[in-house]
Design brief:
- This protein has two helices and twelve strands, in the order βββββββββαβαββ.
- By secondary structure, the protein is mainly beta.
- The strands form three sheets. An eight-stranded antiparallel beta sheet has the order 3-2-1-12-9-8-5-4, with no helix packed on it. A two-stranded antiparallel sheet has the order 6-7. A two-stranded antiparallel sheet has the order 10-11.
- It is globular and about 40 Å long.
């Protein structure tokens, strides 16, 4: 399990889009069962097993499914090796249900647009500063030996 960390808003909780100073566990599962590589499709899974939907519109409450589907697929963009310091972009394949800005904004926990979308879906353009997150090891790094996000990358699930 890993935490999704925002340089702007600290940790993203997995019970919604709240903000926390403490890590919150997330599973990151490759959709094809393979390895996690930059640009691959993944599912974001909360510790209770629910999958975060990628088709939520800007300003709407977070939506979840109990089973994997096309609606729970996200694109994970990064360069190089995936570790605690790697800058990643989490992209909705539908641009948040058609909104035109595809990446989950890292101010989601605190509320972009001056707080107007606090705890709700918030998207931004690719490669803009607020499109970047970090994937941080949660607990023992998911594989028993630490080593950050790369520790479990070979297993497919981080």
């Amino acid at each position: 399990m890993y935490s999704i960390f925002s340089p702007a808003a600290q940790y993203l909780v997995n019970t919604g889009f709240g903000q926390s100073k403490e890590p919150s566990p997330w599973g990151i599962e490759p959709c094809d069962g393979g390895r996690i590589v930059g640009g691959c499709k993944v599912r974001l899974r909360a510790a209770d097993g629910r999958y975060l939907r990628s088709d939520g519109r800007e300003g709407s409450e977070p939506a979840w499914d109990n089973t994997p589907s096309k609606a729970t697929e996200w694109l994970l963009h990064f360069d190089g090796e995936l570790n605690d310091n790697t800058r990643v972009q989490i992209e909705s394949p539908t641009s948040g249900g058609g909104g035109g800005e595809p990446c989950m904004c890292n101010d989601t926990p605190t509320g972009g647009w001056g707080g107007a979308v606090k705890g709700k879906y918030s998207y931004c353009p690719k490669n803009r500063g607020d499109a970047y997150w970090n994937i941080k090891a949660f607990g023992d790094g998911g594989g028993g030996g630490g080593g950050g996000a790369a520790a479990a990358e070979g297993n497919g699930v981080i």
